[in-house]
């Protein structure tokens, strides 16, 4: 079971080790893949360094009426033909919708993967936009019943976090979401962490910071444009009191059309790297990656959303996905629970695509230059009379010395650093380590 760290900034495993949340967005996983496809998907993401997969039980794309890979739907209908959240379609002697979810959760556990389960996409509570399928089926009473059922069913599964919201702001239905959260808590006995996933540009902290059930905050920086300053959203949550961990739960997806407009182009591996390093160095406890073909498990013949063009199996190997393991590797390489965002470490922070972000631990420091721009560091902010300086390549995960012959440099005054290359797509991380560490 995952827990929140003592300082309320990070996730931790039961043994106290930090858990760097490296998530993949697989919203349609339960709904569209069969067992063999599921195993192949999970194994691939495991090999690529992901440790969390986010998926939805009642999905947006006809998630009530459209059958899963085994011809099953999640809910029974009432006498008026309306899908009833208080009547899960558990069918004896059949591999029903819920047994398939059981399989996915258990297979993920065998790979040491956490499943971030979204009980329902937000359109089942509030349509919210003209593209939503709905229908709206939840009220306060059946939301609590549904939450209790889901929570109880997976009470003893250790590899779960709950994600409410499903790309919707709570607005006038906030009581429904609170009821569902209460049902989850009643059902699972408080065994699992809960958050809320809002619409683009918003954070769960706006509505639920003081709700006891909201264990950590999720914001969605979204797909509105290149170089979107998601670090500002993270920083805003980071400085709320009392503290709660925060994460960018839906940043710009790889190969997603920019602002849903193909004429503006598509987000590339560089865009998803930029969002990841900006977010974590601003105070996030991890990051979530997404690919526009993978979240919907697009195949030719299916309706394509958000510019999806690749078959989902091909999209699994896109470069941005492969580079997320380097994000996780860097932050796990040093004491992660010490990491504190600190822009005072650098004198020229720059804006837009060139923005530079910095954070430090007790004996180490990271500075991310998004386009390889030079920067000046205020030394003496980490331990050690001397420090070793290295460049970390976010494209390859390789490290090289940032100083001739690799000798240590004095940890005092101000030092200027020039990344090996510069330009769009030429991002670099400077690592400074206490030379005596």
Fill in the CATH topology of the largest domain.
TIM Barrel
β-strand amount: 15-25%
CATH uppermost class of the largest domain = Alpha Beta
Share in helix: 10-25%
Record field, number of beta strands: 23
Structural class determined from secondary elements:
alpha/beta
- CA radius of gyration is 22 Å
Query: Could you say what the CATH architecture of the largest domain is?
Result: Alpha-Beta Barrel
The number of helical runs is 10
CATH superfamily of the largest domain: Glycosidases
Mean pLDDT: 96
List key phrases describing it.
TIM Barrel, 437 residues, alpha/beta, 2 domains, Immunoglobulin-like
Describe it for me?
By secondary structure, the protein is an alpha/beta fold. The chain has two domains: 3-337, Glycosidases (TIM Barrel), CATH 3.20.20.80; 342-434, Immunoglobulin-like (Sandwich). Helices cover 24% and strands 22% of the residues. The protein has ten helices and 23 strands. The chain has helices at 29-32, 35-47, 97-110, 140-153, 174-188, 205-208, 230-238, 269-281, 312-315, 319-332; strands at 3-4, 11-12, 18-19, 21-25, 52-58, 75-77, 83-88, 114-120, 160-164, 194-196, 202-203, 217-220, 246-248, 286-289, 340-341, 356-360, 364-369, 375-378, 386-392, 399-401, 409-410, 414-417, 428-434. The strands form six sheets. Strands 15, 16, 17, 19, 20, 21 and 23 form a seven-stranded antiparallel sheet that branches. Strand 9 (160-164), helix 5 and strand 10 (194-196) form a beta-alpha-beta unit. Helix 2 runs parallel beside helix 3 (97-110), helix 4 packs parallel to helix 5 (174-188) and helix 8 (269-281) packs parallel to helix 10 (319-332). The two termini are 32 Å apart. The mean pLDDT is 96.
């Amino acid at each position: 079971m995952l827990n929140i760290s003592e300082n309320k900034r990070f996730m931790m495993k039961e043994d106290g080790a930090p858990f760097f949340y490296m998530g993949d967005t697989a919203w349609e996983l339960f709904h569209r893949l069969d067992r063999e496809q599921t195993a192949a998907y999970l194994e691939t993401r495991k090999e690529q360094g992901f440790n969390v997969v986010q998926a939805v039980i009642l999905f947006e794309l006809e998630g009530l009426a459209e059958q899963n890979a085994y011809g099953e739907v999640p809910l029974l209908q009432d006498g008026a033909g309306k899908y009833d959240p208080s009547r899960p379609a558990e069918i004896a002697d059949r591999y029903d919708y819920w047994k398939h979810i059981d399989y996915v959760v258990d297979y993920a556990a065998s790979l040491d993967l956490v499943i971030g389960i979204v009980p329902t996409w937000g359109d089942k509570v509030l349509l919210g936009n003209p593209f939503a399928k709905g229908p709206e089926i939840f009220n306060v009473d059946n939301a609590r019943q549904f939450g209790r059922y889901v929570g109880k069913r997976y009470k003893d599964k250790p590899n779960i976090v709950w994600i409410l919201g499903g790309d919707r702001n709570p607005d006038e239905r906030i009581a429904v979401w609170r009821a569902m959260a209460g049902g989850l808590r009643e059902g699972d006995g408080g065994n699992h962490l809960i958050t809320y996933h809002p619409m683009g540009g918003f954070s769960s902290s706006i509505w639920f910071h003081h709700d006891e059930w909201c264990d950590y905050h999720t914001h969605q920086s979204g797909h509105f444009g290149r170089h979107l300053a998601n670090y500002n959203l993270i920083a805003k949550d980071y400085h709320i009191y009392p503290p709660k961990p925060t994460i960018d739960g839906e940043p710009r997806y790889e190969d997603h059309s920019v602002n849903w407009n193909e004429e503006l182009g598509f987000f590339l591996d560089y865009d998803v790297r930029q969002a990841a390093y900006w977010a974590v160095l601003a105070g996030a406890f991890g990051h979530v990656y997404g690919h526009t073909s993978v979240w919907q498990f697009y195949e030719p013949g299916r309706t394509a959303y958000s510019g999806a063009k690749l078959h989902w199996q091909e999209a699994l190997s896109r470069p941005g996905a492969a580079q997320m393991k380097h994000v996780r590797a860097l932050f796990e390489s040093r004491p992660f629970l010490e990491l504190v965002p600190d822009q005072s470490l650098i004198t020229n922070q720059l804006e837009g695509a060139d923005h530079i972000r910095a954070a430090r631990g007790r004996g180490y420091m990271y500075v991310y230059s998004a386009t390889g721009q030079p920067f000046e560091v205020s030394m003496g902010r980490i331990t050690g009379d001397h420090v070793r300086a290295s460049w970390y390549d976010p494209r390859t995960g390789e490290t090289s010395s940032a100083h001739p012959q690799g000798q240590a440099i004095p940890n005092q005054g101000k030092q200027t650093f020039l990344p090996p290359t510069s330009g769009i797509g030429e991002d670099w991380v400077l690592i400074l380590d206490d030379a005596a560490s």
